[in-house]
Amino acid sequence: MNGHPVKLKENVEIKPHTTFGIGGVARYFIEIKSVEELPEAIELAKKKKAPHYVIAGGSNLVFGDGLLYITLIKLCPPKTGKLIEVRGNKITCDASVVLMDLVNSAVKNSLGGMETLSGIPGTVGGAIVGNAGAYGQAIPDKLEKVLVFDGQKKKWLTKKECKFVYRGSIFSHPSEREGSAVAFSAHGKRGGFATKVTSNPSLYVLRAVFKLDKGDKKALEKKSREIIEIRDKKYPPGLKTPGSFFKNVLINEMPRESLKFLPTDRDYFGKVPAWHFLNQVGARGMREGGIAIADFHGNYLINTGSATFEDVKTLADKLKKLVKDKFGVELEEEVVYVAE
Question: Which of 1, 98, 245, 337 has its CA 20 to 30 A from that of 331?
């Protein structure tokens, strides 16, 4: 491998490795410095015969309390090394690259198609797995191909082979293939992505190639700044949260009788924000144990310092019932529960 064999630790506290600050103890823990060390870490994890999860900052994850019989593999992106390469209108980058770094590289090189993804925390790998998108742009729009590790060898998948759906892909939908996939997530104010990994996963995102459009650098920089300003106002830093808790609702999947509840004030690109429904059922300010919903955003759950997994589940189930009863709409979590 890299001359520095990965090391496995036992009984490591999970909370410090998540943005939500919730979770008990991982039976096994492996820290890796790059995606190149992932195969070795996977082999080591398999020997323990425990479900394993690969994260960076642990956003969009809600871990259970107590001792979890899992192997947690944490990716710590290296401080040095060429992880992003720009050639003409193509960008190749590692899955461990923070998404905002990819956006900045595109803008710096006058390449358009990613500027409205500005401010979304998380890594490129996680964005691909979760099909990240915002303000009319999504990560697959300019994606050409993805390098994956299937547990035995590396191979390239085309965008079509990734089978992207709203907030998902072949990597995050086990029903579309054998095994499960992995996403890398990075610490941030909102979002980030991670997907449950079984003890026999089949696809791990390692690298991606994007083909973008030539654009005006100043215009791209202006749009990027505008998006970041919007996000900074909506999502204050420093809060213990996984980011937006529930997925937005696709209009074309809503029950016919629920369409009368759609907002008419603006276009949400074929989706209705989950907070549109949550705000109207009184979600803002609600509490359950150590969990409080922000008074400024009904889809923003915050750990006040003593929250537990059960607090989160209880409140989430209550919110889903309220929305279902009032609007006939079924909300789906964007976060992933890990409670082995």
Answer: 98
